[in-house]
Design brief:
Layout lengths: L27 H4 L3 H11 L4 E5 L2 E4 H19 L5 E5 L4 H12 L3 E5 L17
Parallel strand pairs: 3-4
Antiparallel strand pairs: 1-2
């Protein structure tokens, strides 16, 4: 195999090298931040880096942030402010990550529902509220 076709021992192709510092350490003050705040920090530092890859679909941090912000705004427009559960019935993938971040950015609680489970009365809208 020619060297340009070789893969890294991890199985990654050579055009997708591991970042020099793949683990980002967070201090105590950062750990106590919300997930959206910590995500925004990554967006600010690495807007063009790949944030999510699911199958053939991938998003940079900036693209994922735009999608999450749009979802968060739509939730606030339809539900208003205030903490409440929001059910997410999505297949695993980039859209699910954007939806989770959007729900959290709207100040809501995400409730993931697995679309592969058979439908039950517990998945009926309105049954998730306390």
């Amino acid at each position: 195999m020619p060297p340009e076709e070789a893969t890294h021992p991890s199985g990654r192709p050579p055009d997708h090298p591991r970042p020099a510092n793949a683990f980002i350490e967070f201090g105590l003050g950062e750990v106590e931040q919300s997930i959206p705040a910590r995500f925004e920090r990554q967006v600010d530092q690495y807007p063009e880096r790949r944030a999510v890859k699911a199958g053939t679909h991938q998003l940079t941090y900036a693209e994922l942030n735009r999608a999450a912000n749009g979802i968060g705004r739509a939730i606030l427009a339809s539900r208003g402010a205030g903490e409440e559960p929001v059910a997410l019935l999505l297949e695993h993938g980039a859209s699910l990550i954007a939806a989770i971040l959007g729900v959290l950015k709207a100040g809501k609680i995400y409730v993931p529902l697995d679309p592969s489970y058979p439908p039950t009365s517990s998945r009926t809208p309105g049954r998730l509220s306390s």
